[in-house]
Amino acid sequence: MTSATPPKLKFYPGRHWFVFALMAVSLALLVLRAFQIQILESGDLQRQGEIRQLRTYPVKPVRGVIEDRQGEILAVSTPLDAITADPGELSKVRQDWPRLADALNMPVSQISSRLDQYAQKKFVYLRRHLPPQEADRIEKLGVRGVASQREYGRYYPAGPITGHIVGFTDVDDRGQEGVERAFDSHLSRGRGLQAGAH
Q: Mean pLDDT over residues 88-96, rounded?
């Protein structure tokens, strides 16, 4: 048996310079692209990110004031708050339900049934028409998935004396009787939009 000598590999002296140049050009292109993205296009990319993260939510305007011909106020909206929850998030922190139920002055079973009823939703009212101070106190409990939302309730300074003329609004601030109903579109005006992080 004869031993075969391994074939000699041909050495091309320019090959390693070609590979080095190719890597240098690739690195230079990467650095230029990074500069373009980080410095030149940063504002545009930031706007695109905000578009993906910010959403607009409808906001109810404050219902208009009703006055008599002497300028005496017959009906005015007062700020109130609603306590809302994300059923999916609140369901994850059952240990906080007793504290929340105590603050809301409702049984834990009522919170549980509300969350079961709206389990497929992202929003549920727990309590409505609370004074802002009480809503702040509840929100400061820091229960995950619970938030407050501003709404307005109607106040009638003259009381029931003018009720048959002025009328009243429902829980969603829509006119139901009297002037409140007749001029509902004028008193409620249009809805606005508010931007918020998603």
A: 85
